[in-house]
Design a protein that fits this description.
about 120 residues; Rossmann fold
């Protein structure tokens, strides 16, 4: 079965790279460039995995994870924050907000999909 991924990312280059890598690995990808659109797409499409940047123009990734993880999506939905805003405590803050995993940018194109899949498997196995 083809898993679906929602990417919430405001940087076009990052969005392109993430979309390209995931589509190349046979994932169904939907995209949002801000939190408001991301929340709507998450509820409309019910993706298996949600990748969200922490720094977005209208709300941060922590707020998105918090809202989505407590609001009607499947308990199997996997939330992963992806950010270059790598400060001490960001990983812990992501987990507290409802994320299942955290991946730092710049992403490594050779390992990113495996990192994401490992987080997915850890929650759903």
């Amino acid at each position: 079965m083809k898993l679906s991924v929602l990417i919430i990312e405001d940087n076009e280059q990052n969005m392109y790279m993430l979309s390209y890598l995931l589509e190349k690995h046979n994932y169904k990808v939907s995209t949002a460039y801000n939190g408001k659109d991301g929340l709507k797409l998450a509820h409309d499409n019910k993706p298996d995995i949600i990748l969200t940047d922490i720094q977005l123009p209208d709300m941060d990734g922590y707020e998105i994870c918090n809202k989505l993880s407590h609001n009607g999506l499947s308990k199997k939905t996997v939330f992963i924050t992806v950010t270059s805003y790598a400060m001490g405590g960001d990983k812990e803050k992501s987990i507290e907000a409802g994320a299942d995993g955290y991946i730092e940018k710049p992403i490594d194109p050779d390992t990113f999909v495996t990192q994401m899949e490992n987080i997915y498997k850890a929650k759903n196995n």
